[in-house]
Amino acid sequence: MAKSVVSIVKGDDPVKMVEDVLDHLGGVTSLIKKGSTVVLKPNAGHPGSAETAINTSPDFVSAVIKTIQKANPKKIILAEAAAIGCDTMECLETSGIKQAAVEAGVDDIVDIKSDKDLLKIPIRDARSAIQKVLLPRFLLEAEHIVNLPIFKSHCSMVFTCALKNMKGVVQDKVHYQMHQTNLAEAMMDIWSVIKADLNIVDMIRPAEGFGPHFTMPTDFGCVIAGRDPVAVDATACRLTGLDLDNVPYFGPAHKRGLGNFKKNQIEIRGRSIEETRRVLWFPYLESFDKYPEYTIDTTGACSSCLSLVGLTMERLKSLNQYDDNSEVTILVGRKKKIPENIPPDKLILIGDCLKKFRKKGIHVEGCPPGEPAPHWAIVDRMTVSADEVDLTDPEILKIVRARMDEEAAPLIEHMIKLKAEWDKRQENK
Ligand code: SF4
After folding, report:
1. Tens digit of pLDDT for each residue in 291-319?
2. CB proximity list for 337: less than 8 A, separation 6 or greater
3. 369 CB under 6 A from ligand 1?
4. How far apart are CA 81 and CA 136, in angstroms?
5. How far is CA 38 from the centre of its chain?
6. Spans of the chain below 50 pLDDT
7. Which residues contact 428 (CB under 8 A, 6 or more apart)?
8. What angle is formed at CA 78 by the lines to CA 74 and CA 82, rounded to 5 degrees?
9. Ligand 1 within 6 A of CB of 352
10. Boundaries of CATH 3.40.50.11440 in the chain?
11. Which atom of ligand 1 is nearest to 300's Cα?
């Protein structure tokens, strides 16, 4: 396989950075055909202001639109499908992306979740349970899809960047199914039928901490770009000190022919990794030894579920629920057998790979489960099964969101304290 090219630029002017990063790839006119239709796919999955870095920054989106206009496309469309239960237009508005895109001269803004002109696309050789997917015609017919993720930590994938951002082109139902099957493979399945041909990553102010919802933005001043999403993601990890072995999908993505992740398979242009690198805080990857009061068996678990358990423990601490629930045993990861002597209300089984034992304890569905689910299973001592509760029902989603919002403030306060402790440890290294 030929080497993949990834370009890296540093600076403080988003327009110049986007122009420069594309110049290292041959320039915008060589990447975008004159008279073409270009769809821009930002990350605007959750309502949150630009300051939160939950979504791609409006200045960056504006810079991309202004740069792409120089290639004289026929039409530039900004399109997004926000996270399950989130209103896409609300996310685009609260993030400032909508206004920035309009001011920059975007031709159209589309909420993929409301689009009715959908085509059913079979996924040949699907590795997850997603065998077919409904995708908007305009997206399938566009000459270019330009993926515009922001880099941030993520509880079910350790981090989110180019590969994961394309998950946001599906309707809520498929999005939900993706979390009920193997999420990493489902992501690859979606990429196998709809590919971005250019990825430009907003690393101007990426987010550390308990992303995707509880982010801690940090000045990084960088933009990276490339055609190969796997190489782009691998480069972003190297820039932020994230060990690729901690990410569940590089191997599967390479095997699926989506791109390269090894250093010797990637040509870096512009700035080098060494001169740009700064280690970010990924609290999900810290050891479980700091929770000695709990019995946690993580044998056989993927990093997605490990991250989720880490977040769960910190959620318990932030809400003063940690001491009151320490009698539970938490099991996560593939296991042939589980302890027999634990009362079912004190045994928390996290993830679909423990589904076969669900009658022996409180089971948390999903592969990996959704973010608050393990925490709520521990405090509520209740199994919530998709067979019994329709978690795509807007009324139920409203209740879920309200509870998440209520629990957010203490967790953010707790996260700021943890980050200060981490900074101190880094200084003393
Ligand atoms: S449920 Fe099991 S297989 Fe799925 S992400 Fe979690 S540990 Fe991995």
Report:
1. 999 999 999 887 778 888 999 999 999 99
2. none
3. no
4. 11
5. 23
6. none
7. none
8. 160
9. yes
10. 4-283
11. 7
Domain 4-283 maps to which CATH number in 3.40.50.300, 3.40.50.11440, 3.90.1010.10, 3.40.50.920? 3.40.50.11440
Site to substitute for ligand 1 among 183, 298, 304, 365, most atoms within 8 A of C-beta: 304
Atom of ligand 1 nearest to the CA of 352: 1
Residues 348-366 have pLDDT tens digits of: 999 999 999 999 999 999 8
> 351 CB under 6 A from ligand 1?
yes
* Ligand 1 midpoint to CA 387 (Å): 20
Q: How far apart are CA 132 and CA 262, in angstroms?
A: 31
Mutational pocket test of ligand 1: of 299, 334, 367, the residue with most ligand atoms within 8 Å of the beta carbon:
367
In angstroms, the Cα distances linking 88 to 42, 47, 130 are 11, 8, 23
pLDDT given for residue 27 in this prediction: 98
- Cα–ligand 1 centroid distance for 368 (angstroms): 5
The backbone region for 158, taken as left when phi is positive above 0, alpha when psi lies in -120 to 50, beta otherwise, is: left
Give 162-181 pLDDT, tens digit per residue.
Answer: 999 998 898 888 887 787 67
What's the pTM? 0.87
What are the pLDDT digits (tens) for 404-414? 989 999 999 99
Provide the token pair at 120: 């059913």
Check pocket membership of 367 for ligand 1, CB cut-off 6 A. Answer: yes
Contact 44, 98 (CB under 8 A): no
Distance (Å) from CA 301 to ligand 1 centroid: 6
Kindly give the distance from the C-alpha atom of residue 305 to the centroid of ligand 1, in angstroms, as a whole number.
6
Whole-number Å distance, alpha carbon 404 to ligand 1 midpoint, is 23
| Integer angstrom CA distances of residue 32 from 76, 141, 190, 229 | 11, 15, 23, 17
Q: Give burial (CB, 10 Å; 0-12/13-18/19+) of 93.
A: middle
